[in-house]
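Quick one, tokens below. Sequence please?
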């Protein structure tokens, strides 16, 4: 396949990744009134663990040992909190708001890289960061009574996703991807189990296809995402992540009739513009924090 063909295929995989993630969010929102979020998250990570069984049997037990249990624990907790907060938020707020707040992760990554990996943020990158956080404020719509709780929970999803990205990058220096995935799924499943047991209730049969799809979506999303970064440059693929906001907006409009008001729409435009501007700056000058951020994005969806 020639260069242009590979790039096009990479773009299509990136779009597919965003579409799958958006439809999984919609599936969760559709059943959240009859299936507790704790059960949805438990089912999701249990299904992911089952998909890893063939890989687990392929390698000896020594392959799965690790000298960095603390880093795995932090990365696993962050990844679990991301989905738990995201599903909680979109049960109460429009899908597009939740998807956008979860997609604020790239805004947090440079700040976390500064704290954890000690990579400084160049002056040129403060402009898109400030622009993005202004957009977040518009989406949160603070008033005299404060910010709506569920929007803040959605923002926690974005922050925890950023933390999981940084954790994945740190672990990838010494751990194979299979080990990182195994501990992530295992820790997330164990975090979900006690909450699901405490809030357990009968699962309607009609929700099972939705639960299966939600569980399968993580593996499918990560596969598509990895293929996208294999075929195309990070500077091309990373901005396409924001197509997920468009998909979420379309699904929210079609299924629930949610249409963002002018203030929220302005916030969405600013956050997306900040992401695109940050990617363009990174492509133009190849600064260290953008290279590191794009490597993080390529290792974790």
């Amino acid at each position: 396949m020639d260069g242009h063909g590979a790039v096009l295929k990479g773009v299509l995989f990136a779009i597919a990744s965003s579409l799958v993630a958006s439809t999984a969010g919609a599936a969760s929102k559709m059943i959240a009134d009859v299936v507790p979020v704790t059960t949805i998250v438990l089912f999701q990570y249990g299904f992911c663990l089952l998909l890893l069984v063939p890989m687990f049997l392929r390698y000896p037990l020594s392959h799965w040992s690790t000298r960095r249990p603390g880093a795995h624990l932090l990365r696993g907790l962050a990844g679990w909190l991301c989905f738990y907060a995201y599903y909680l938020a979109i049960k109460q707020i429009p899908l597009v708001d939740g998807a956008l707040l979860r997609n604020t992760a790239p805004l947090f990554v440079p700040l976390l890289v500064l704290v954890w990996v000690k990579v400084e943020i160049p002056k040129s990158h403060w402009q898109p960061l400030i622009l993005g956080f202004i957009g977040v404020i518009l989406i949160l719509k603070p008033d005299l009574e404060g910010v709506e709780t569920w929007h803040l929970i959605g923002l926690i999803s974005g922050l925890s996703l950023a933390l999981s990205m940084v954790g994945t990058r740190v672990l990838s220096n010494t751990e194979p991807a299979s080990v990182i995935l195994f501990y992530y799924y295992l820790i997330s499943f164990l975090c979900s189990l006690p909450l699901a047991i405490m809030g357990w209730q009968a699962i309607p049969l009609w929700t099972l296809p939705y639960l299966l799809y939600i569980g399968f979506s993580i593996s499918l999303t990560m596969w598509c995402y990895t293929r996208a970064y294999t075929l195309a440059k990070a500077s091309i693929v990373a901005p396409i992540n924001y197509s997920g906001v468009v998909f979420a907006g379309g699904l929210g409009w079609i299924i629930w009739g949610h249409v963002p008001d002018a203030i929220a729409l302005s916030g969405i435009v600013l956050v997306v513009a900040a992401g695109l501007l940050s990617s363009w700056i990174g492509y133009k000058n190849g600064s260290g924090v953008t290279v590191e951020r794009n490597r993080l994005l390529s290792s974790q969806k």
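Residues 3-31 form the longest helix (29 residues). The chain has a mean pLDDT of 81.
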